[in-house]
Amino acid sequence: MDAPGSTPRILLEGLLHRGELAGLELRDARAHFMVTGAVAGVAGALVLLFGVTGTFALAALVWERGDRAAILGLVAFAYLAGAGALAWWAAARMRAWRPLSETRYQLREDCACLNHYLSEKAP
User: Fold this and answer.
1) Half-sphere exposure at residue 2, Cβ-oriented, CA atoms within 13 angstroms
2) pLDDT tens digits, one per residue of 50-94
3) What is the CB-side half-sphere exposure of residue 102 using CA atoms within 13 A?
4) Is the pTM of this model over 0.85?
């Protein structure tokens, strides 16, 4: 480690390894996003189909009643409340997600190691 030029070599190798780690984490993040997006899209389509057919079925059941507007209004409000809850959950999930967390941790550890190494070599 005391040979001239060893510190830049160590720094370069460390940065290359961290670059590889960042690439792995980006691939993982992309896969996570793609799978979550596909599942959410299919689930959304199925929920929309269920909502439409369920609303038509409910409308057919209560069509002869005098309070059908109130019943269908409550169903619409339940749809809106469910959509709001899901939007809140999705926003909380995105706020909690920390992309490249392992890469950032490793870079902080590398900096601490280099600072320690360089402070020992300082006269």
Assistant:
1) 3
2) 889 988 998 899 989 999 899 889 988 998 998 899 889 988 988
3) 12
4) no
Q: Which long-range contacts (CB under 8 A, 24 or more apart) does 68-73 make?
A: none
CA 110 to chain centroid, in Å, comes to 27
**Block residue for tokens 């920390």:** 98
Element (H, E) at 96: helix 68-96
Token digits of residue 16: 């290359």
Element (H, E) at 21: helix 6-62
**Pairwise CA distance, residues 113 & 15, whole Å:** 13
- The type of residue at 106 is Q
Mean pLDDT of the chain: 84
